[in-house]
Amino acid sequence: MSNVIIIGSGPAGISAALYTTRAGIDTIVIGKDYGALQKASEIENYYGFPNPISGKQLIEGGMEQAKRLGAKILSDEVVGLSYDEKLLVLTKDGEYSGDSVVIATGTSRSTPRIKGLKEYEGHGVSYCAVCDAFFYRGKDVAVLGNGEYALHEALELLSTSSSVTILTNGKELTTNVPSNINVNTDVIEAFSGSEILKKVIFQNGNSMNISGLFVAVGVAGSTDLAKKIGASTENNRILVDSNMATNIPGLYAAGDCTGGLLQISKAVYEGAKAGSEIVKYIRSINKKSA
Ligand SMILES: Cc1cc2nc3c(=O)[nH]c(=O)nc-3n(C[C@H](O)[C@H](O)[C@H](O)COP(=O)(O)OP(=O)(O)OC[C@H]3O[C@@H](n4cnc5c(N)ncnc54)[C@H](O)[C@@H]3O)c2cc1C
User: Fold this and answer.
1) pLDDT digits over 51-100, tens only?
2) What lines the ligand 1 site, CB under 6 Å?
3) Which atom of ligand 1 lies at the shortest distance from residue 11's CA?
C-alpha cells in the first residue's frame, strides 16, 4: 500500500495527515513533542474559537482528529532522511520508508554562536555526516552537540574517520556514548584555521586539531533534515514551490519550516496543500507502475 511519512505533529504535519488519511493513504506522523505551541498559553487569533484556547488543547485536538481518521501518530525523534528505493526516515528508535515524506518540523533551531563556526561552513564545518563523511576519510573529526542527534552523526563518521570526538561545549551528555567515540565537555572559545578549519580552541586555553566539524546541536532541525537528502534551503527555510513540493521528488515541506508568516493559519494551509498534492503525486506514481 502507498504510504506517507510526516515528520512533525504540529498544525502543519497534522493538517497534511488529515488530507492523506481521508484519501486512503497509509499515514504515519512522527513528532517528538508539541512543537512551538507547547509554550503558547492563549491563542486567540485562530479561526473558530470564540474564547482563547491553549496550544496544548489545539495540538491534542488535532492529534485526536487525525487518529480518528486513521493516522498513526508516533512519539519519536527523527535524526536522518535519505533515499533507498523509497524515501527513508531514520529515527532514534527505528526507520520508516515512504512513497512520500513531509517535513513539518517547525522553525529550525539557531546554530550556536561560536566564533569561526559560520566562517568555516563548507570549509570544514558541515551539517550532514552522511553527505560529507567521505571528505574526511582517515581524518580526525568532531561533532558539536550533546544528545541523540550528535550521537547519530558521530556513529555515521566512525567507519570513515580516524577519530571522532563529540564536543558538548560545556553541556552535559544526554545520551550514552560508546567508548570508541571520544567526548570533550569543555566550553568552546572559537574554531580556527586558515582557508580551512584546523582546530577548536577551548575557553580553558586547551586546543584540539580537527579537520572536520559536524554540527548536530539539539535535535535535527528542518533545514538539517532537508540538506541530508539534497533538498534546497535558503538561510533557515526549506525552499518549496506553490504545491509545497521541494526539489526532491516525493518530498514536501509545510509550516514554519518554509519561512514567511510563522502562524498557525499558514501552517494549516500549507499542511493541507502538501497533503492534497501528495494524494495526486501518489496516484500518479501508482498509475505509472500499474
Ligand atoms: C510562545 C508562542 C506563542 C505562539 N502563539 C501563536 C498564536 O497566538 N497564534 C498563531 O497563529 N501562532 C502562534 N505561534 C506560532 C505557531 O505556534 C507556529 O506558527 C505553528 O505552531 C507552526 O506549526 P508547524 O506545524 O509548522 O510547527 P510546530 O508547531 O513547531 O511543530 C513542529 C513539530 O515538529 C516536531 N519535530 C521537530 N523536530 C523534530 C524531529 N527531529 N523529529 C521528530 N519531530 C520533530 C515537533 O515535535 C512538532 O511536533 C506561537 C508560537 C510560540 C512559540
Assistant:
1) 999 999 999 999 999 999 999 999 999 999 999 889 999 999 999 999 99
2) 7-13, 30-33, 35-37, 39-40, 43, 45-46, 77-78, 104-106, 219-220, 255-256, 262-265, 267
3) 25
Which fold is adopted by the domain 125-215?
FAD/NAD(P)-binding domain (3.50.50)
* Domain 3-109+220-289 classification at class level: alpha beta
Which of these ranges, 86-95, 113-122, 176-185, has the smallest mean pLDDT? 113-122
Query: Cα–Cα–Cα angle for 112, 103, 95, nearest 5°?
Result: 95
The domain limits of the chain are: 3-109+220-289, 125-215
Task: Please identify, by atom number, the ligand 1 atom nearest to the C-alpha of residue 266.
Answer: 19
Whether the domain at 3-109+220-289 and the domain at 125-215 fall into the same CATH topology:
yes
